[in-house]
Please model this.
Amino acid sequence: MLSFALLPLIAGLGYALPQDSCQTVTTQVIVPTRTATYSSTVVVTEHPTSAKDLGTFTQWTTLSSTKTLQTLTSYDSTCEHTDVISIPFATETVYANATRNANAPGPSTSAYSKRALGLNPRDGCTVTITSTTTYGQTHTYVPAGQTSTYWDYTAFTQATVTSTKSGGKAWAIATASATTPTKCGDVTVTPTVLTTTVTLDPRCSPSAMTSAYNGYGIDWLSDTPTSGATYQTNTTDSSACCQLCAEAEDCAASAWDIRTGACKLEFPVNYDSGEMNCGEGLLGYYNAGPNHPMSPGAGWYVAQICGNAQFGSAKPDDGT
Model:
């Protein structure tokens, strides 16, 4: 007899178990605590026939003193004639102790997952909760017996003057050119055993550069956000651009655009003294779309040399 009495109790415990898939429907009733009464004013719109004068606008031009930070030299080749020229069979590029940038695209090794916990759900379970909240106020508007006029102008006038003032500082990188001798001749041979080795700074290896951030390509740059000068040229690849920065004094960062071949060297300075400080060289903006997101490696390639670079998201291209 006791065993038959325990059966309904065990069945009741089964229905009392937590149900993870139960659907909860919450109904909230809000009751205002008070009623507020406001006076309303009738607005009359007038359309003037004359133009509204907006005053005088002054356009200022600031004349700043310019300080040259340093001079970068570009080299051109001159011909030293010889009868036979030997061209290397192969060229090998060496990067010593190159390290992968932490922001470079690629799978993360720290990802993990965990098993979801919970009981097996029953179907068709719905819990309805109704709550009542006393909050806010109702609004009542009554005529105030007054009239306000809004002047709807369709034409405007404004005078413009131009003025100049002195102040501020600007920084620049000077350029110079030089020539180096190069062998040239009438006959070219290619020995199969001759190999040329090009050694570049390890910070200029492709794996050490940042060509994507948060999985998107870097679309555009803000040069020396605090203060400084930018040197611009064109190179064949990102490593050649980076090597120019590595060989220049206090070059904080380099950036190379795969779309145009443009190369930028960034030289930040202290805003008060104008001394180069190897600080923040540039701010790069990655393009996350959402309409047209940029693929990794489709924009700028950034190398951090004696300074650093920061990255942020560009404005969404869907108008938000």
